[in-house]
Amino acid sequence: MPMEERLIQRLESAVTRLEALSTAGFRSGGSIATGDDVEVLDPSIIAFDDLRSQFLGKVLSAAEMIGGLVLDITKIVEEAFSAQRELLIKIKETKKPDNSGLAEFLKPLNDVIVKATKMTEGRGSDFFNHLKSAADSLSALAWIAYTGKDCGMSMPIAYVEESWQMAEFYSNKILVEFKSKDPNHVEWAKALKELYLPGLRDYVKSHYPLGPVWSATGKTAVSALSKGPSPSAPAPPAPPPASLLSSESPQASSSCPKQGMSAVFDEINSGKPVTSGLRKVTDDMKTKNRADRTGVVNAGEKEARVTAPSVSKTGPPKLELQMGRKWVVENQVGEKNLVIDDCDTKQSVYVYGCKGSVLQIKGKVNNITIDKCTKMGVVFAGVVAACEVVNCNGVEVQCQGSAPTISVDNTNGCQLYLNKDSLEGSITTAKSSEINVLVPGAGPDDDWGEHALPQQYAHVYKDGHFVTTPVSHSGA
C-alpha cells in the first residue's frame, strides 16, 4: 500500500476517534468504557495504533518494494502487532491470571510468533537474514507477559531492548550485504529496528513501564478469550512448546546429566575400584596369536573399509555451567537460539566444535573463547578480559558492550561487529585471513563502516633490525 494511502487512513482513523469522543465521552465517575469503546477511548490503544501506523508502516512499505519472502515475514510481523493490540484491549477487562491462565491468554500472540519461527527453518532462502531478524524481533512483544519482579523476566522496557539484540545480529548482516546493492533492503532493516527502538520501547515506557495493568473486577483470562468449546467440539490442541512464558535458556545447564570427563572424575571419586568391571585380555584374544588374522588385507575387506559409514568423533552437545565458573557450549549443530542469560563477571564461556549455530550471551562475563567452530555466530554483552577466536572458519562475533582485547588466531573468515564502547580495545590477529571489522557510523542513521584487517606484511631490514609494515592493496 502506498505511503499516501496509509496517511489518509491514519487521518480518517483520527477523525473517527474525535467523533467518538464528542458523542460517547466517558462513563460516570471518569471510568473508561468497556468493549468496543475501550478501543476508541483508551489513550494506550490510540498510541499503539499510532505506533503501528508510524513505524510498522515504514517496514511494510519497504517490504512491498522487495516482495517475496521478505513481504511474507513482514505481514506476519504486522499480524503479531495486531494480536498484541487485541490482547491489550482484553487485559483492561480481564483479571490477572495465574501462569497457566496467562499462557492460554497469550496463545494467539504465541501462535503468530511460532508461525514466523517456522519460516526460518532450513537455510535454503537467499533472505534467511531477513527471516531471522524479523522472527527473532517478535520476542520483544513478550513484554506483555511481565507480571512482577519475581516472574523471571526483565522489566518491560529492558526486555524490549534485550530482545532486539538477537535480531540485530541478523539485521546488521543485511545492512552490510545490501549496502551497495539494494537500498530497499537497507531501508527495511533500518525500519525494522526503529519499530522496536525507539518505537515499541518508547510506547512501553510511556504506558506500561511496570507491565500490563489487569482489571480488578473483570472476567477470567479464559472466558475473556472465548466462551469455551461446545460439548461436541474436539479438544483444543496443546500450546506449542516455545511459550512466551519460557524464560529459561533452550538447554538448562543445571538439569543436564554429567557427561564426558566430568562423569569419569565422579566415578573415580566415588570410592569404587577403578578397574572394577573391566575385562581381562587373554593371550588368545591378542591379534598376533589369532589364527583368523593373517595380516594381509584382501581386496574385499579393503573395499568394505572404504565404503563403511564413518562414525562421528564429536561428542554430545552441551550447554552447561561447570563448577559454577565455566560455561561450556560444545558440539552444537544448527542451533540458532542458544542463550546464556544467568552469568556474571566471574565466569568464563568456552565454545567448542559448534557449527551453523548462534549463541547469545546476555550478561557480561570474564572472558570468552571460541575454538574450532564453523559458521558460528556469537553475540555477547561484554567481557572483562578478552574474547578469543581460535582455529575457526567463517565466524561472526558481535560485541554489544566493552571488550578490552579481541584476539583472532589461526582463523579463516571472521566478521567482528563492534559497539562504540569496544572501539578503544585492541584487536590482535595471527595466522588468520579475511578478518573484517564493522564499526557503527557517527550518527544513529549512518551506515556501518567496514574495515579489512591486513593479512600480508612487508619486512625491510633497516638500521640493524627488520621493520614490518602491513601491505595495502589499491584494488586495481
TrEMBL record:
InterPro entries found in the cross-reference section: Adenylate_cyclase-assoc_CAP, Adenylate_cyclase-assoc_CAP_C, Adenylate_cyclase-assoc_CAP_N, C-CAP_CF_C-like, CAP/MinC_C, CAP_C_sf, CAP_CS_N, CAP_N
Residue ranges of domain C-CAP/cofactor C-like in the record: 316-453
Any Pfam family: CAP_N-CM
Domain of life: Eukaryota
Cellular component GO terms, alphabetical: cytoplasm
Low complexity bias spans: 243-257
Region (Disordered): 223-259
Molecular function, one GO term: actin binding
Any single biological process term in GO: cAMP-mediated signaling
Bias (Pro residues) ranges: 231-242
PANTHER family named in the record: ADENYLYL CYCLASE-ASSOCIATED PROTEIN (PTHR10652), CYCLASE-ASSOCIATED PROTEIN 1-LIKE (PTHR10652:SF14)
UniProt record similarity statement: Belongs to the CAP family.
Protein name stated in the entry: Adenylyl cyclase-associated protein
Annotated source species: Anisodus tanguticus
